[in-house]
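Contributing: when you submit paired examples, paste them exactly as shown. First protein:
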Amino acid sequence: MGSIWQRMHNLALEKLHNIEPDAYIELAGRLLKIILILVAAKIIYRIGQAIISGFFRRRTSARFHVSEKKVNTLCVLSQSILRYILYFIAGIMILEQLGVNTASLIATAGIGGVAIGFGAQSLVKDVITGFFILFEDQYAVGDRVTIDNITGMVEEIGLRTTKIRGFEGEVTIIPNGQILKVINHSRGNILAVVDVNIAYEEDINDAIRIMEDVARKYAAENENIVETPQVQGVTNLGDCGITIRLIAKTANGEKWGVERELRKRIKEAFDDNKIKIPYPPKVIIQSEEKDT
């Protein structure tokens, strides 16, 4: 075994002795170029990293504020994309210095990329859409939204999927690429709408006055009502009664609680003032069989 290693060592030394001085110079030049490529890639990455960080820091102080969690996610994602692009370009340039035919390598990679792209185009679409959802701040964790007729609270936002928790506790996972329309119920003030029915025999003006009094007193107690409630008047003449609508602008997320409390208080006030709420009448006809 020792003789074999000795022969290999002697053969290597012989090859080195046979190399022309110009070859050493060329080899040193290639090594120097490889080092310069690595250093340049590192410098470009550092500069790009600083630019990306500065851009997303400005987003946090912009007029349309983005949460720190989203900014950090987008910042890290952008820096990772930049790093992999630089790695790829630097790798190709280094292979060229080593004498590798990069044209055929890129062609092979291109064919493989096309094949993978056809197989994973839905995944790529989900990721790209998820990136823009985060970047544009279309909705955030904790927002109440409606996506594809699914209404609930946003529990998690990822680059590939969004998780919506419904009112009964169920979780719906929606691929981001399938999200075409979003209704966000949690941005700015929201309108509470209360429709109340009264019987045709009742006085409409009395009912409106009572509803106004109830709404005004409740608004003075509840700081979540941001504007004085208004009774819009009669909105429908139904089969069994008259519909009167009351509206109140509320703080974000308080609409449903305000509506429930207003309905309760209006019903109690109607009972105190003997104003009847209609109900569908039932007529029972009983036939008597005659003895034959």
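Second protein:
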Amino acid sequence: MADAIVGRSGALASVLQEVNLVADTDTTVLIQGETGTGKELVARALHDLSRRREMPFQRINCAAIPRDLLESDLFGHEKGSFTGAIAQKIGRFELAGQGTIFLDEIGEMPLDLQPKLLRVLQEREFERLGSARMLRMNARVIAATNRDLATMVEERKFREDLFYRLSVFPIRVPALRERREDIPLLVSHLVERFASRMNKRIDSIPPETMQALMRYAWPGNIRELQNVIERAVVLYDGQTFLVDETRLKRETPQLPLPGATFTTALAEREKEIIEAALVESRGRISGPSGAATKLGIPRQTLDSKIASLQISKSRFKVQLAS
């Protein structure tokens, strides 16, 4: 599964290095990154490179299941434990056995269910709903989120003790705009995959098409790129491979094309965007109205960028106070 992660950029290489470092341990891993960056691929790579690779990989999306059903799905229940429980159900922690359980969108887990998960992580045991019999948890836990859990802890929307339990070894998956040099490889990979499924042959991608794909900021990351490429392959008429450029001209920043000044141009554009967010947030970094939330990145990431770009946060507070 690690082979399914396509790219050669330095940003991606750092992620893969971290994956290789922690994969063959029992350490709990928290994968962070924007929606569509491939967090599940990283989770599966961690499983496939571990000694648990022959054991089950159980994935559960904490945002897709109602609270009452989520508890039952995780821990199981006994027949008659609640209305509608007409038979015993084995939960995901039990089904995972000595394999891996992947808790996707962990930031969406209800607050009142978080203590039970914390107990599982601390004591390595749980009980089915309606049962007094304690069961051992032998699986390795990997969690993922696109939320800034540290800020959620400050806002009392996520338990601090659970946050520290989950983030023993955090891995941040970069956004596609942060690994732009991987776009040609990803495009070629996706074109080949979709063309094969549709029994089409696409030998080349016009340079202007690739330039359009590389200019776009990809707010939906790899998932959005997949969507655009699949549509283009469906519409391919055997002549010229084209993408629907109207979909790439929405109100998102357009990246400069590669060149000698790319790094400088990118830094300048990044600084402009961050300063605009700081103006709008009155210099506040965290919280619902903070710059990090407006930019959709973790607070720690924004603090690092502010420091590297030498942006003065106090300047924005003074400007707006005067």
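If you have annotations for the second protein, write them as plain sentences, like these:
Residues 101 and 141 are 5 Å apart (CA to CA).
The radius of gyration is 22 Å.
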